[in-house]
Amino acid sequence: MSSSRSTLSTLSTSASSSTFRCIAGCDGAYPLDQVIYKCPKCGDLLEVVHDLEALKKRSAAAWIKLFDERYLRTQWPYGSGVWGKKEWVQPHVQDENVVSMLEGGTNLLWAERYGKQLGMSELWVKQCGVSHTGSFKDLGMTVLVSTVKQMISEGKNVRAVACASTGDTSAALAAYAAAAGIHAMVILPRGKVSTAQLVQPLANGATVLAIDGDFDDCMQMVQRLAEEEGVYLANSMNSLRVEGQKTVAIEMVQQFDWQVPDWVIIPGGNLGNVSALGAGFSMMYDLGLIQKLPRICVAQAEAANPLYQAYKNGWDKFKAVTAKPTLASAIQIGNPVSVRKAVRTLVKFDGVVEQASEAELADAAARADRTGLFNCPHTGVALAALEKLVARGEIGKQDRTVVVSTANGLKFTDFKVQYHERKLAAVPDPKYANTPVLLPNDYVAVRDAVRRELKS
Questions:
Q1: Over its length of 456 residues, how does the chain's per-residue pLDDT go in tens digits?
Q2: Which of 118, 158, 203, 381 has the most CB atoms less than 10 A away?
Q3: Can you tell me the distance from the alpha carbon of 325 to that of 27, in angstroms, rounded to the nearest whole number?
Q4: With contact defined as beta carbons under 8 Å apart, do 410 and 142 qualify?
Q5: Cα separation, 22 vs 419, whole angstroms
Q6: CB 406 within 8 A of CB 273
Q7: Pairing state between β 46-50 and 18-22
Q8: The pTM is what?
């Protein structure tokens, strides 16, 4: 993007205050540049609360006009899908401290052929993996790292930004921190991250700590590490991440010419994304840009399904689980930190939770791939949930439905190769396996193989 600061940069609304507040309703407001992650009174998570009355000074029609004028343009930093909504996200960050790589602006793909197979006329896939580091985590990390850069410019003692990760978070943190010149430290579960995901933070110069344990162990480690002076926490329990990720909701509505889909299906692990999209839809509704809310489905892997179990047994019966190995490694999380936010969102949005077995997620990803997509296993979980909801009539054939694809399938080529080579132990009978036909260097053999294929 150009560094021009003309035209659209002068269109921002009058300054509004945005603060951290406790999700449980405790008194107290904390500035967004304060190093704080939980309520000091009750220990619950915080959320960013914007001054809606100040934002209402601009009409809904004027907000729509402003956002449309900025969308994917070159005026810094508004061409970003996140920073084009700066007043709704992080208004106090100065433009020169924004760290952006044109995140957002991702394709809202009409999955026409796959939808027709399911009997649906309005199936769409929001391809968040078509981003700088290949996942939706870029949306939250641009906000967090920009805020840290602002804090450092004001003299605050932040020497490193740290996260626990199953891959995508570490890649996004490492890239944005490298662009900002800030030290990144990531803690990964050894042997549970794809090669493509592991090489990203290594290439961007992050300190990578691979421990013997799962994501929940890594999360405990990084939370303790964040208690050290000078280490800033970058996981989704830091609500700045949610502020960037909520723009997925705003953007998909914008791409539908400000119409709201009937259903949104989101893969769920640490559960920050469901509360993020809920926040985006709620903000549009409260400011009058939309007149209804969609229904939301959170899709979990059966091997790591604490939210699904609570949905079936009662929200008050939520219990953390020990996550079992799953092909959807990024959501192999048994003790999600954002569960209360997620439950609150699902209740407000008349939401549901569905699960997918290893075979179901792998087959759903492969089936959709055969219609032109190239899905990560986590999107496969969401697609499997979609197929179940459509089969039992909960999602209607005419319902406009958006599946949020969280990462680029190219990060998970081992998963795809092993599926098609029938080498996934968890998927003994892959329905859509497609293996190469091995032939000698002989035209007749090639011709005969082609003829056989065309007859089938």
A1: 444 444 444 444 444 589 999 999 999 999 998 999 999 999 999 999 999 999 999 999 999 999 999 999 999 999 999 999 999 999 999 999 999 999 999 999 999 999 999 999 999 999 999 999 999 999 999 999 999 999 999 999 999 999 988 788 999 999 999 999 999 999 988 888 888 888 999 999 999 999 998 888 998 999 898 888 899 999 878 999 989 999 999 999 999 999 999 999 999 998 999 999 999 999 999 999 999 999 999 999 999 999 999 999 999 999 999 999 999 988 999 999 899 999 999 999 999 999 999 999 999 999 999 999 999 999 999 999 999 999 999 999 999 999 999 999 999 999 999 999 999 999 999 999 999 999 999 999 999 999 999 997
A2: 381
A3: 41
A4: no
A5: 44
A6: yes
A7: antiparallel
A8: 0.92
SS (H, E, C) the chain: CCCCCCHHHHCCCCCCCEEEEECCCCCCCEECCCCCCECCCCCCEEEEEECHHHHCCCCHHHHHHHHHHHCCCCCCCCCCCCHHHHHHHCCCCCHHHCCCCCCCCCCEEECHHHHHHCCCCCEEEEECCCCCCCECHHHHHHHHHHHHHHHHHCCCCCCEEEEECCCHHHHHHHHHHHHHCCEEEEEEECCCCCHHHHHHHHHCCCEEEEECCCHHHHHHHHHHHCCCCCEEECCCCCHHHHHHHCHHHHHHHHHCCCCCCCEEEEECCCCHHHHHHHHHHHHHHHCCCCCCCCEEEEEEEHHHCHHHHHHHHCHHHCCCCCCCCCCCHHHCCCCCCCHHHHHHHHHHCCCEEEEECHHHHHHHHHHHHCCCCCECHHHHHHHHHHHHHHHCCCCCCCCCEEEEECEEHHHHHHHHHHHHCCCCCCCCCCCCCCCCCCCCCCHHHHHHHHHHHHHC
Residue holding tokens 């951290």?
20
Distance between CA atoms of 175 and 386, rounded to whole angstroms? 33
Q: What are phi and psi of 40, to 5 degrees?
A: -70, -10
163 within 8 A of 170, measured Cβ to Cβ:
yes
Distance from C-alpha of 82 to C-alpha of 103, rounded to nearest angstrom: 7
Reply yes or no: is the peptide bond before residue 428 cis, omega within 30 of 0.
Answer: no
Residue 48 CB neighbour total at 10 angstroms: 19
